Amino acid sequence: MNRETKIIAGFPGVGKTKYLQNLPKDFNALDSDSSKYSWVLDEKGNKVNGEDGKPMRNPNFIKDYMAHIKSQLGKQDVIFISTHGDVQKALTENNINYSIVYPSLKQKEQWINRLRGRNDTGGLNNEGFLKLVHDNYENWIDAIQKDEFATKFELPYKGINGISDTLIKDSPTSKLTKGISVGNEKSKTQVKN
Known about the structure:
Low-confidence stretches: 159-164, 166-193
Largest sheet: 5 strands, parallel
Number of helices: 7
């Protein structure tokens, strides 16, 4: 079946996992975790350390991640992707339409606390990641807001309880996917909920 795939860049903690857990059986969605492409991995999928003893970044990260995303177009209804600026740039250069879901600037401390409180095996609540988000939050949100290619959904500032409700309210094709163009259609429409 050839599906009209919608690509959604989701800021850490926006509710991608909860969204995926509440899908009808005939709706295909994928959380395309960029960390699987960010690092040099051995044959068992473990990170390979460089001479300095630190994990080595994959020099082909963008190329490999884009190949993965492209391979899923037409197979998935929704693909959740990274909000890395280089990924957004590559999507724009490839004329692949996407949307971004992100919190507002004024939600910073609330958002960090949201990540800290998660029962998460994906690493969003570890102190190193929390520090990374804390130190880069304003720059990341600013870069998202300056993106002229993506359709944007800034989450309303209504507290922790309302955030994931905004993402999954009613059905998988409601607020989150309405107004989002298909992955291969170029549109500069900006939507703010």
